[in-house]
Amino acid sequence: MELEGRGAGGVAGGPAAGPGRSPGESALLDGWLQRGVGRGASGGEAGACRPPVRQDSDSGPDYEALPAGATVTTHMVAGAVAGILEHCVMYPVDCVKTRMQSLQPDPAARYRNVLEALWRIIRTEGLWRPMRGLNVTATGAGPAHALYFACYEKLKKTLSDVIHPGGNSHIANGAAGCVATLLHDAAMNPVEVVKQRMQMYNSPYHRVTDCVRAVWQNEGAGAFYRSYTTQLTMNVPFQAIHFMTYEFLQEHFNPQRRYNPSSHVLSGACAGAVAAAATTPLDVCKTLLNTQESLALNSNLTGHITGMASAFRTVYQVGGVTAYFRGVQARVIYQIPSTAIAWSVYEFFKYLITKRQEEWRAGK
Question: What is the DSSP string of 169-228?
Answer without folding.
Answer: -HHHHHHHHHHHHHHHHHHHHHHHHHHHHHHSTT-S-SSHHHHHHHHHHHH-GGGGGTTH
